[in-house]
Amino acid sequence: MEAIKVDKLSKIYKDKTKGLSELSLTVKQGEIFTLLGPNGAGKSSLINILTTFLKATSGSITVLGKDLNKEAGKIRREIACVAQKISIDGHLTLKENMVFQGRLYQMDMSSIEEKMKRLIGSFGLQEYTGKRVASYSGGIKRRLDISMSLMSSPKILFLDEPTVGMDIESRRTMWDIVRKISSEFQTTVFMTTHYLEEADMLSDTICIMKNGHEITQGTPDNLKQYTMQQYVRVTCSTPEIAAGLGSQLSHETFVQNTYCSESVLTVLVENTKRDYNQIARLVLEKGISQTGIEIAHPNLDDVFLALTQERSA
Q1: Which helix (H) or strand (E) holds 227?
Q2: What's the CA gap between 137 and 100, in Å, rounded?
Q3: Domain co-membership, 10 together with 41
């Protein structure tokens, strides 16, 4: 059985703004499913509808075999959502927050203690159990927030930008936690993120959205095959130099497209072996400050940019 099936879903707000436009996607049970898209793509609208906070204008949604329009109450008892804004009481300790959450779901103390012990151990929270939450770092608060959402043993966990604002060490810890949620707790994870590396490393399936509808859906490897195009990648000294080089190269006849990501310029060309030499010669002749030029295979960044951005000027 599919965890989630969305078919031709649309959402039009009162001001006539289109949040979603006949979007369709499928989430398999037990997988880590990641939703990608630029700002305004409709990711928040979709999550708010799937978690029953919003009603769709048209289309159908099945969650765990249940019709979302007819059985929203039953679905709520089988899902959990961790939003970007942390929703824990800073005046309470970790244990007090988790006990409170268990009580909300009418769990008895024996079940609460058992589940709490497992979650604290799995997510490395042992040293924080007696401390007030207000003293925790952002990363620890996020771990606790996720732990609390798992107290009710949801079958689907929605994670909205789970690592936003974290340093790289905290992000890597969170990646391990997301994997544990899927493998150890047998929970389907539906996640949004702006970090393409994160989506590539964690996801079983990725859906890329734009303008309220899906562009493509597949495994990270399949999406990379989707654009079997030829790239030359130039790592410049600064983002400004990369953007300037992209502007120059976009006027060359052999260049099909250019994409900038920080200081890295990716150039889509017609023939990598031939065009690599032309790009290298231009870079050297212009004295452009760079640390490397290479022929590159497409990665998830290339796929995302190729599908969601227009040609650079």
Answers
A1: none
A2: 21
A3: yes
